[in-house]
Amino acid sequence: MSRVLLVDDQELMRMGFRMVLDAQDDLEVVGEAHNGEEAVEMAARLRPDVVLMDVRMPVLDGVEATRRIVADGSSKVLVMTTFDLDEYALAALRGGASGFLLKDTPPDGLVTAVRSVASGDAVVSPSVTRRLLDRFLGGDAGELRDPSVLDSLTEREREVLVLVAKGLSNSELAGTLFLSEATIKTHIGRILSKLDLRDRVQAVVLAYETGLVRPGEQ
User: Signal peptide position in this chain (predicted)?
Assistant: First the structure.
């Protein structure tokens, strides 16, 4: 059973999420918060597996709330937003969120995402990831990070990281590189371990920040 905390300043939105999640045998909503400050307090007290986090809220926004919850190490955060190109969402990912979804995601997509984050995977739509990174890591994003941080990767691992950063799923990676999905997962696991990254999202951001992948590249 995965325990979920709902965080949104709109009661109707929380009610809808609760109805969808509580209908699942393996998911339980253990609390609701209507701002980031409440979310931080409740996450520390309830220790949910996943916090379903709105990013635009009064008192304390979801970005800062995400940073505090992830720093505490008590829960994983899945960010929800209305906008598919949202600087708040990218900031939340950089702050440690394990996933990003639009609020109009179908119920089955929401359930799948919560289960994936609870099991330790990152959840971000490849197309949304690419648009976010192209917009907010391109152009005037500042100086690139030293690419030597990638020196520990093998040539194959570097190739996998490039394709992950371009938005390919594991099945697409397997087809492109003529490898099994199990092998792809092994490569990604090694990349995360070598680079001391928490998940796929952080790997994508690092690929852009080091210049391994440039905004707008296909």
Answer: none
Structure tokens at 79: 């960010």
3-state secondary structure (DSSP) of residue 30: strand
The CA distance from 11 to 63, in Å, is: 20
Check: CB of residue 156 under 8 Å from CB of residue 163: no
pLDDT tens digit string along 95-129?
Answer: 888 888 888 888 988 998 898 888 776 666 555 55
- Look up residue 5 and give its DSSP letter: E
How many Cα atoms within 13 Å fall on the side-chain side of residue 90? 20
- Structure-token match 């393996």, residue found: 26
The pTM assigned to this predicted structure is 0.68
- Amino acid symbol at 36: G
- Kind plus residue range of the DSSP H or E element containing 58: none
